[in-house]
Each structure stands twice: as C-alpha cells, then as structure tokens.
Write a structure and sequence with these properties.
The protein is an all-alpha fold and 429 residues long. It has one domain. Helix 4 packs across helix 8.
Length: 429
C-alpha cells in the first residue's frame, strides 16, 4: 500500500517522498549534534544562531519573492522566465550585500551587539547567493513535481553542512566551522538542483528572452511589491527572537536558544516543510480547478498536522530537560527548559506554517503583509517588555514570547480560512 502511494504521485505520496528525504537529512543532523555540542561552546553556537537569523532575513527577499510565483503560471515559458528573473535578482542582491557589508558591516555588527560576527561578514554574500539560488531552484522543481530531486538535495545539504562543521570543529576552527559548514551545505544542495534542472529542462532555456522576463515580472509584480515586504516582516518575526536574546542576554543564551530551536524544529523541517511544498503544488492546481476541494485540503491538512505531529511534539517537549543534559552534555540542559517554555509557539508553528502559502496562492499578499507587520511588533514587545519592565529571567521571557506567538498563529489560521470561504478563481492573463 505504501509503495503504491509513493508511485502514484498522490498528495500523501509526495509528502512521504519529501518527508523521507528530509528525514534522512535531519537524521544526519541529529546524529551529529551531540558531537557538535561537545566540540563547540554555547557562545560559538550563538554566533551561528545569529548568523542564520540574519541570513534568513536576507535569503527570504533574495529574489524579491518572484520565486514563489514559479509554480503558478500554466505556461512553461512564463515559468522558465520567472526562474531566470529570480536568479538574476539573486545575483544582483548578493553583489549589493557584499558592497554594503564591505563598507558598513563592522558598524552593523556593533549596532546589533554581536561584534563576534565581524570576522565572518564575508560569508553573508556567499550564503545569500547560494541560499537564494537554492530557494529559486526548489520552486522550479516543485512546479515540475520532481520531489525526489528535492529530497536528494536536502540530504546533500545536511551532509555538506554536518561534514564541514565536524571537520572544521575537529581542527579547532571555532565558530567559523559552524558558519562555514552551514554555507557549504547550501552550496552542495544548490549545485545538485542546478545540475538536475540543466539535465532535464535545458530545452526550455531557448525561451528565455528579455521580453518574456519583462512580461512575467509585470504579471506577478504583486510578489515583489507586497509579498517581499510581507516575507521580510515574516522572517523578522521569526528571527527577531534570537537577535534580541543575543542583544539582551548575550550570545551564550542565543546558543542555548538555537539548540532548542534546532531540536524542536526537527518535526517542522521533517514534516512541516514537506507538507508545505506539496500543499503549494496541490493547492495551486485546485485554486483554478476546484476551490471547494482546496478548502477541504486546507482543513484536512491542518487537522492531520495537529493530531499526528502537534500532540506528539507537545508530549515529547515536556521531557526535554531530562534528556538534553545526557544527550548533548550538561552545559546544554538549559536548552531543554527553553523547549518547555516554547511549546505553545512550536504547536502553532507546526500546524499553521505549512499552510502559510495559502494567501500567496490567493494573491492576498496584502493580508499577509498586515499580519506580518503586527506579528513583528508583538514579538519585539513580548521579549522587550519582560526584559525592560520586569528584569525577568530568560525562561519567563521565552514563555511570554511563546504565548504571544501562539496567539498570532491562531489569528493567521482564521484569516486564511476566511479567505478560502470567499475564494474565487483568478483568471490567467
């Protein structure tokens, strides 16, 4: 039965393919983490956490969100030109970031209260280029329903990252080993997807012309004009916490927080992202063909995520403090208590985030922008208020932040469901 589902190309089959590859990649990370936590200090993990947070903000707008539109057009010519447009923007943004960091990088690191990043500033343009291209090529493969190729790339990313981090950690490179390994993983994964695209879709390259690129850029202009700002605010809401924790409590706290995110985020990466990518492909098709079926897909996916992932995540999170010290080393036990404090947020994230492409599919990026704007205000307030007003300990601050995030995810879910109830197909222009 399982083999038949995998071969049928069904929604569940595609999820299982992606989840399987992602699971193997995450298994590599999980098996390596107890070793990494013994050869790197919490403060060095803190540098990686801050780097990844800033990198996340940069990558999400590296192509101005045109890559999100790649699965949408019916015409393969429009799709290949969107891919070319996205790639060109990524290259331009990488060059621009390099110039800015060359002149102002040290001052920005001091401003963020993380001067430890200054030796690693040159990693940012490289990470932006490789991460942005990997993101663009991922959406091309989603459009082509080449989910097996995506799973192979995910495994390659984890293998490259962990291999680099272990090798450089053994050579006592310090935080540069963690940061360099992260970038190496993106290079490996992006290279795999680029090779796959050239091999399978090179006949479409002849349809890439400036006029077609211009036409596609105009047709999907709402993505850079609205969705890019929304995505930046969305990532700001996700990444503000580690950046604020590093600024208020120090990079060591950011390192403990980073490990908590890394471990608790395994189901989100393993299942959530796989569900999200398959949901995007399936919901994009149903949007034009069967709006009622898209609505049912939304509710069915949310309920299954809650029952089969959310509830086990909550139960497992409660025992985290008792196993972190044993698995990762005694100095990391506090990360287990961080997970307990963050359980409400992780539950909302697990159920709602895989469905978050719904507003993009409906081209209601304006609503996403409004939600993201208020969320980043709530996140910043939820961390700053306990710190400045109550001088509270980190655990109380994280619990306050967690409840605020859970509330915001609930609001987003209701917004998406309401839009699905008034759904009307958008004609292709």
């Amino acid at each position: 039965m399982l083999i038949q589902r995998l071969r049928s190309g069904s929604f569940l089959g595609n999820v299982l393919i992606l989840a399987g590859g992602t699971g193997l990649g995450q298994l590599i990370v999980v098996l390596a983490t107890p070793v990494l936590t013994r050869i790197y200090e919490p403060a060095e993990f803190g540098v990686l956490t801050v780097f990844v947070s800033i990198m996340g903000l940069m990558i999400v707008v590296s192509a101005l969100r045109y890559e999100i539109a790649i699965p949408l057009p019916a015409s393969p010519v429009a799709a290949i030109n969107l891919t070319a447009l996205s790639s060109l923007i990524v290259v331009g943004m990488s060059i621009l970031s390099g110039v800015i960091l060359f002149f102002f990088g040290a001052a920005l690191a001091q401003r963020l209260s993380v001067p430890q990043l200054i030796p690693y500033l040159w990693f940012f343009p490289v990470g932006l280029l490789t991460g942005g291209l990997f993101q663009t090529l991922s959406y091309w493969h989603i459009r082509q329903r080449q989910f097996k190729r995506l799973t192979q790339a995910k495994v390659g990313q984890s293998t490259g990252m962990v291999g680099g981090q272990l090798l450089m950690g053994g050579l006592k490179f310090g935080a540069v080993g963690l940061v360099g390994g992260y970038v190496l993983g993106r290079i490996v994964a992006g290279g795999q997807l680029l090779y796959s695209m050239i091999r399978d879709s090179r006949t479409l390259f002849g349809d890439i012309h400036f006029s077609n690129i211009k036409k596609s850029a105009s047709r999907y202009r709402r993505f850079p004009l609205i969705s890019s700002w929304s995505a930046l605010l969305n990532q700001g809401g996700l990444q503000a916490a580690p950046l604020l924790l590093a600024a208020f409590y120090g990079v060591q706290v950011a390192g403990w927080f980073g490990l908590a995110q890394r471990v608790a985020g395994i189901p989100l990466t393993l299942i959530g992202r796989s569900v999200s990518q398959v949901y995007l492909g399936e919901a994009s098709r149903l949007h034009n063909e069967n709006p009622a079926a898209m609505r049912r897909l939304f509710l069915r996916t949310a309920s299954k995520l809650f029952l089969y992932v959310g509830i086990p995540l909550m139960i497992g999170g409660l025992i985290a403090p008792w196993i972190f010290g044993f698995i990762f080393g005694e100095q990391w036990r506090i990360s287990g208590w961080y997970i307990v404090a963050l359980l409400p947020m992780f539950l909302g994230q697990m159920v709602v985030t895989p469905l978050s492409q719904t507003l993009n599919i409906l081209e209601r990026q304006d609503l996403q922008l409004i939600w993201d704007f208020f969320r980043i205000l709530v996140v910043a307030s939820a961390i700053a208020i306990p710190y400045y007003w109550f001088r509270s300990e980190t655990l109380f601050t994280l619990a306050f932040y967690s409840v605020a995030m859970f509330s915001m995810y609930g609001i987003l879910f209701l917004m998406m469901y309401r839009q699905l109830n008034i759904l009307k197909p958008i004609p292709e222009s």
